[in-house]
Amino acid sequence: MKVSRSKSQSPLTLPERMRWRPALALLPVVFAASFAMAQAGADKSASDTRRSGYQDMGAALQKMQDDDTANPGMLYVQLGEQLWAKPAEAASKACADCHSVADMNGVAARYPAIPKNSDRPIDLEGRIQLCRVSHQQAERLAPESRDLLSLAAFVARQSRGLPIAPPDDARLAPFRSEGEAIYRRRQGQLNLSCAICHDDNAGKKLAGVTIPQAHPTGYPIYRLEWQALGSLKRRLRNCLVGIRAEAYPYEAVDYVALEVFLMGRAKGMPFEAPGVRP
Predict the structure, then answer these.
(1) Domain boundaries, the chain
(2) What is the pLDDT of residues 176-219, one digit of tens each?
(3) Which superfamily is assigned to 55-277 in CATH?
(4) Which of 76, 84, 100, 102 has a CB 3.0–4.6 Å from the CB of 150, allowing a cystine?
């Protein structure tokens, strides 16, 4: 008895082989392109030596930051969530009346930014203040106040894990340059600059603590030294005092210019607020 072969078992005919030949010819090109892209990604990753302050901490502090039930900054996030839904003063409007929580996804990772009808950037806290005054007809919150930090922490929490993505706004260029100039300028009685510590000596120890690269990936952060949540502005003021320099006034544009530069320097790094630091 003669057994016939199924079509799936039959060898390709000459016309079929001719139809497949162009596709087969492209396979080496596709494999080469895929390999090149993978290699480029690996090279980029290997050449990126930036480190978050999180990576310089011990395992115990890393676990504290990672666990929302242990991270003290989450207490501020919870308060911020309450304030988000609470109507404020004259206009009796809450943040939630204009914005959904989903609207805040990625917002903190894009600040500082230049708001509408303005020619200078503001940080995240400045954006919250602007909304309070302009839309809620409420009084400005005091710098470093619990309510301001809590609202900032709640908004920042919605960007956790996203890459830092400064706005592609040409108007920020002069502020970025000004921030870099401040970062590299020697100041104070100790005649030090930000760059001397955070570029030249990053990774070394100072008073038993690793000097970080100063990437603002986790603000607002809970510092064990402060036993409280604090803004990047507070940390910059601490640094100025530490080098025996006079801290700028809280509303000085110098802080925002520095943040514009630092966020550009940290572009693409994961945002991790609320962070925990020693």
Answers:
(1) 55-277
(2) 999 999 999 999 999 999 999 999 999 999 988 899 999 999 99
(3) Cytochrome c-like domain (1.10.760.10)
(4) 76
